[in-house]
Inverse folding.
């Protein structure tokens, strides 16, 4: 075979013979040609390829890859380039020879471009599941749902109001033990944007706000003031007090009431020569006459001054204590009450139906994605009232051991603007018709905030007498302590309403009429349910019931003060047709005081509901001004007739009615000229670049051809 090849006249002839031979061999051993090509292509020949060299060197010296420490993004990009180079170059040595500087480790890693990049340093805690869960738990503990929205990623979510500053939330044991406060803050920013500090006062009950921001501030100030004042007169005045606080772990921040009471007591008994009856056998430093008596080392001339200061301090501290007690009681009552109501809603006793409801602020229509000034500001914007409720009931197969609860959320829209007890009670009756289970209702609990449309004798009469008689079951009424109570519980519902309406706006769907809003909400909730089957079952409908013919109210003796009770109930009476009513004060029912009452008929209290004006609806916005015939008038024309004397010479005044067209044109022309100028400049620059590139290319072409010719002559 070699002898044939030897006889070929030139290199080309020899190559032709060899390729023919390979073609024949391919028939015998398919794939042989590819194998040969691979062996020939590798190593030396590629290492001398000028194109590869230019390309690889260029990639290796890309500016973003030159930093001593690469960002995660750049790292990812370089990994990707490494991978491409690894695919193109025969081996790492070849790649290095071609100017792609890459180490053994990087070369090895280059085969997995998708694998996670470790940017170096300690792994960040803020994306760890466990850390996120710990922070979320701490935040849940210290927050309550609000009805406002915030943007999380691309989605609108219902915001939650923090009841503590983030620095306090950080102190939760699971959180502060697992990350630094800086990481905690960064984690909040990255994953927990929906937990926000209260922005509006309405997120906060007024009393609780006053306690935190006013009363406690005054208490701290007063204590500091008298500590300094009395300490100036007698240096060791508070020594025993501080020891007592340290020994009993008493602090103002944790037990404000107790601290203030004892602080006052300590001062008022400081000059007694023996402990008071209460403290006779206790460790409390009561009666420290020893410190000021003759021979104690205390300057006797200052005893009178000390006594005067003590009297003034006592006076101020007692007044503050009384104030503080009221607020502390409010907070305490709220916590106790909300715990009982929470338990009731979360797990009602078998046979009990719970209805929690509240009013949402009015929504206005139309809601258009492009609102004109008129739509925004005209009084003609119509109002829609929204009432929301949660109905909790046991299913038919539910048992005490294995409770199975059915929860239904209701959104009722109407143009009736009354938020009175009369209307609210009507809606409660409507809601009770929407029960989802056939199970017999043995007890009904009506839960609400303590606003005037709920906590009134009229409502109590309705729930405890009318509903009792209508459903033949015992009824309980529970009120939250805060006016903002319902926000603590399930009325995130209104947040969802906003979420759906916001989504409509973003999808450019216009809502003109109340029924549009009902439909939008229905489909919005259906969509939520579809994308997340765990999301709640929401019934949304419109109710325009007529004014009831009759209403009753309770006439009670003076000993029931409805504004001081958070829980009432009724049981059938054996003696009369109307039930017995009991006042329990709080929902955990510490007492049951029978209420002495009789029913008073109120008759028909109103002739008609207050209704948003709807006769025009959409027409009000679809304006098409028509020319006015001599007899036709519009509001504007009449206004003109009435007011024309006040603006004389209106017709003589020169003012373009539309934006001045000439000026408009001049501006457009100017802009056009500017655009043209910049385009021309860009074109020139491009052409210049192109010319430079072409000249470079031709020179490098000649370089490479000379290089290859020299190498071929060498071989
Ligand atoms: Zn090449
Ligand atoms: Zn409060
Ligand atoms: Zn005492």
């Amino acid at each position: 075979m070699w002898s044939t090849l030897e006889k070929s006249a030139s290199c080309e002839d020899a190559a032709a013979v060899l390729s023919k031979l390979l073609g024949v061999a391919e028939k015998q051993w398919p794939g042989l040609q590819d194998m040969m090509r691979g062996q020939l292509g590798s190593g030396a020949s590629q290492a001398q390829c000028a194109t590869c060299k230019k390309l690889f060197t260029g990639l290796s010296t890309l500016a973003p890859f030159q930093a001593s420490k690469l960002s995660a993004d750049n790292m990812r990009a370089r990994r990707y380039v490494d991978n491409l180079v690894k695919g193109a170059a025969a081996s790492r040595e070849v790649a290095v020879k071609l100017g792609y500087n890459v180490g053994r480790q990087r070369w090895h890693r280059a085969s997995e471009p998708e694998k996670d990049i470790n940017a170096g340093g300690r792994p960040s805690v803020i994306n760890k599941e466990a850390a996120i869960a710990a922070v979320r738990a701490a935040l849940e503990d210290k927050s309550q749902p609000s009805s406002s929205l915030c943007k999380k990623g691309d989605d609108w979510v219902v915001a939650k109001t923090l009841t503590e500053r983030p620095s306090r939330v950080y102190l939760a044991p699971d959180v502060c033990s697992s990350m630094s406060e800086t990481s905690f803050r960064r984690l909040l920013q990255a994953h927990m944007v929906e937990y926000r500090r209260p922005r509006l006062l309405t997120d906060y009950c007024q009393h609780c706000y006053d306690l935190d921001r006013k009363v406690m501030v005054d208490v701290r100030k007063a204590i500091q003031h008298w500590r300094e004042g009395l300490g100036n007169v007698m240096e060791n005045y508070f020594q025993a007090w501080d020891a007592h606080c340290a020994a009993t772990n008493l602090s103002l921040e944790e037990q404000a009431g107790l601290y203030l009471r004892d602080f006052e007591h300590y001062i008022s008994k400081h000059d007694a020569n023996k402990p008071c009856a209460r403290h006779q056998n206790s460790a409390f430093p009561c009666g420290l006459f020893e410190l000021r008596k003759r021979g104690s080392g205390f300057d006797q001339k200052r005893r009178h001054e000390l006594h005067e200061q003590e009297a003034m301090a006592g006076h101020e501290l007692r007044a503050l204590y009384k104030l503080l007690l009221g607020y502390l009681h409010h907070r305490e009552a709220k916590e106790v009450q909300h715990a009982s109501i929470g338990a009731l809603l979360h797990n009602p006793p078998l046979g009990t139906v719970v209805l929690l409801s509240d009013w949402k602020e009015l929504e206005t229509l139309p809601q258009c994605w492009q609102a004109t000034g008129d739509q925004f500001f005209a009084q003609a914007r119509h109002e829609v009232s929204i009432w929301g409720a949660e109905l909790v009931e046991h299913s038919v197969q539910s048992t005490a051991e294995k409770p199975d609860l059915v929860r239904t959320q209701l959104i009722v829209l109407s143009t009736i603007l009354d938020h009175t007890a009369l209307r609210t009670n009507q809606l409660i009756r409507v809601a009770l018709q929407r029960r989802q289970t056939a199970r017999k209702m043995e007890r009904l609990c009506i839960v609400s905030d303590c606003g005037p449309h709920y906590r009134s004798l009229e409502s109590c009469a309705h729930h405890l007498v009318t509903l009792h008689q209508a459903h033949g079951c015992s009824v309980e009424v529970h009120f939250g302590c805060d006016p903002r109570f319902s926000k603590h519980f399930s009325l995130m519902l209104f947040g969802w309403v906003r979420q759906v309406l916001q989504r409509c706006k973003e999808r450019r769907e216009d809502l003109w009429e109340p029924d549009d809003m009902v439909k939008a909400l229905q489909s919005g909730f259906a969509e939520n349910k579809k994308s997340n089957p765990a999301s709640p079952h929401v019934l949304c409908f419109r109710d325009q019931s007529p004014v009831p013919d009759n209403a009753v109210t309770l006439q009670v003796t003076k000993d029931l003060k409805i504004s001081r009770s958070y829980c009432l109930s009724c049981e059938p009476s054996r003696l009369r047709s109307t039930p017995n009513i009991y006042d329990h004060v709080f929902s955990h029912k510490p007492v049951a005081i029978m209420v002495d009452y009789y029913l008073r008929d109120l008759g028909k209290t109103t002739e008609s509901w207050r209704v948003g004006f709807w006769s025009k609806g959409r027409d009000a916005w679809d304006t098409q001004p028509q020319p006015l015939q001599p007899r036709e008038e519009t509001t504007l024309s009449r206004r003109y007739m009435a007011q024309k004397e006040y603006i004389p010479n209106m017709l003589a005044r020169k003012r373009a009615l539309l934006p001045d067209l000439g000026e408009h044109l001049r501006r457009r022309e100017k802009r056009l000229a500017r655009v043209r100028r910049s385009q021309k400049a860009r074109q020139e620059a491009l052409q210049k670049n192109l010319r430079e590139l072409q000249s470079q290319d031709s020179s490098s072409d000649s370089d490479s051809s000379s290089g290859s010719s020299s190498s071929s002559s060498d071989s």
